[in-house]
Automatic annotation (TrEMBL):
Gene name per UniProt: ugpE
Entry membrane topology: Multi-pass membrane protein
Main localization category: membrane
The keyword Ribonucleoprotein appears for this protein: no
Protein's name according to its UniProt entry: sn-glycerol-3-phosphate transport system permease protein UgpE
Function: Part of the ABC transporter complex UgpBAEC involved in sn-glycerol-3-phosphate (G3P) import. Probably responsible for the translocation of the substrate across the membrane.
Compartments, record wording: Cell inner membrane; Cell membrane
Signal peptide annotation: none
Length: 276
């Protein structure tokens, strides 16, 4: 029987996507306007709201020749190190919770679940004081350390590891392979979607962080992109042109990463069911 094509759902999806992109498009267009025209065409709405009358690159040039360029580099370095180190730590923790049998494993797993149910912002202030006492203020280590042990990433990897047949581990042990060898030669090669999904969780958590970098790194040399964007709002005026430009450039990188790896991210959640 021939199926009938209904364009309705697709049209709704396209319309919803376009509506979701409008604020980002408007911010990008505003970054190319002279400061006096940024809010001029908001009321009433017209084609000029999204199409600038005059185009200037002064905001973009000022943005990338100022402190924002250093802040973007800091964000890239901090996020990359968080993903790399975090994947090592989270994958090993997940392996210990999924493949090793030891007393108290369920208690450790419960504590890990509780850890990612607590909003990080609720513990950021006391944790920042601990980091100051350890002399980790204004350092890359201070920015990176809270992000490498992500409970949601551990949970995702642990659930994926539970779906790997135990017979593979038992056969490897018979051949003389130890637990570390089983982890690196069996579990990790089979877990590419889950590793990418966990990496995206670590990436998004660190890239969009604002409160923690603001607390632990007040030195402008260690500002990340989100803090640098907020600094465009001064006591007496706001540089909306540079602020909108910074917001757009800050959003483009995670958008590109998510578009490239979205199918792996979806696959990582779709295959986390346990057979145990």
């Amino acid at each position: 029987m021939k199926q009938t094509y209904h364009p309705g759902p697709l049209a709704i999806a396209v319309a919803a996507s376009a509506a979701a992109m409008l604020p980002l498009i408007w911010a990008g267009v505003s970054a190319l306007r002279p400061s006096a025209e940024i809010f001029q065409y908001l009321s009433p709405l017209s084609i000029r709201t999204l199409v600038p009358v005059q185009i200037t690159f002064d905001n973009i040039i000022a943005l990338w020749t100022g402190p924002f360029a250093r802040a973007m580099l800091n964000s890239a370095v901090v996020t990359a190190l968080t993903v790399i180190v975090g994947l090592v730590i989270c994958s090993m923790a997940a392996f210990a919770l999924a493949a090793l049998n030891y007393r108290g494993r369920s208690v450790v797993f419960t504590a890990m679940i509780v850890s990612f149910l607590i909003p990080f912002d609720s513990i950021a202030v006391p944790l920042s004081q601990v980091f100051r006492d350890l002399d980790l203020q204004n350092s890359y280590a201070g920015l990176i350390l809270p992000g490498i042990g992500n409970g949601l990433a551990v949970f995702l990897l642990r659930q994926f590891f539970l779906g790997i047949p135990r017979e593979l581990s038992e056969a490897a042990m018979v051949d003389g392979l130890g637990w570390f060898g089983i982890f690196t030669k069996i579990y990790l090669p089979l877990s590419k979607p889950a590793l990418i999904g966990a990496g995206l969780i670590l990436f998004v958590f660190q890239w969009q962080a604002y409160l923690w970098p603001l607390l632990i790194a007040p030195n402008p040399d260690y500002h990340v992109a989100s803090v640098a964007i907020a600094s465009f709002a001064g006591q007496y005026d706001v540089d909306y042109g540079q602020m909108f430009g910074g917001a757009v450039f800050t959003a483009l990188l995670p958008m590109g990463v998510l578009l490239v790896f979205q199918r792996y991210f979806i696959a990582s959640f779709a295959s986390t069911g346990s057979k145990d």
